[in-house]
Design brief:
single chain; 117 residues; alpha+beta; five-stranded antiparallel beta sheet; 26% helix; globular; binds adenosine monophosphate; binds zinc ion
Length: 117
């Protein structure tokens, strides 16, 4: 069924506590934890507890959870005292997506270039 945990999904395993992670925040619908390979002083992944392969699929199926996710990214940024930050949804392998469970990268704590690479 849509949104159900996927036994082969790394992020579903993190939510289930089967793979360890440094958890930053948790709500009924979202989970936020530090990226294992940080690309900035703050690099937190904010994910829905429901499994959807990417952000657009999540947004089509679960608009409220998508809003929760974006709000949580802002709450984490505030807790990390970030005045400026970037929220990135890599979508598709050509754009660098490697884990096919929707996730926002929250990046901050250093200067950012535009356009991104
Ligand atoms: P993406 O490449 O956009 O799909 O992002 C996946 C992210 O998950 C990468 O930034 C990885 O560094 C991160 N990652 C992979 N495995 C883990 C893990 N066990 N704990 C935390 N972050 C992870
Ligand atoms: Zn998953």
């Amino acid at each position: 069924m849509a949104g159900e945990a996927n036994a082969d999904c790394l992020f579903c395993k993190i939510i289930a506590g089967e793979v360890p992670a440094t958890v930053v925040r948790e709500t009924d619908t979202t989970y936020a934890f530090r990226d294992i390979n940080p690309q900035a002083p703050t690099h937190v992944l904010v994910i829905p507890k429901a499994h959807y392969p990417d952000a657009a699929t999540l947004a089509a199926a679960e608009p409220q959870i998508t809003a929760d996710l974006l709000r949580e990214a802002g709450v984490v940024a505030a807790e990390e005292k970030l005045e400026s930050y970037r929220v990135v949804f890599n979508t598709g392998s050509g754009a660098g997506q490697t884990v096919f469970h929707a996730h926002a990268h929250l990046l901050g704590g250093r200067g950012m270039q535009w356009p991104p690479g």
